[in-house]
Amino acid sequence: MSQLDNFISEYANTDPNVSVSPSKVQESFQLLDKDYEISQKIIELVQIKDKLADIDLKKIYGICLLVILALWIIMVAFICITYIFQDSPHVSDTVLITLFTTTTANIVALPTLVLKYLFPIKD
Question: Angle at CA 92, nearest 5°, toward 108 and 81?
Answer without folding.
Answer: 65
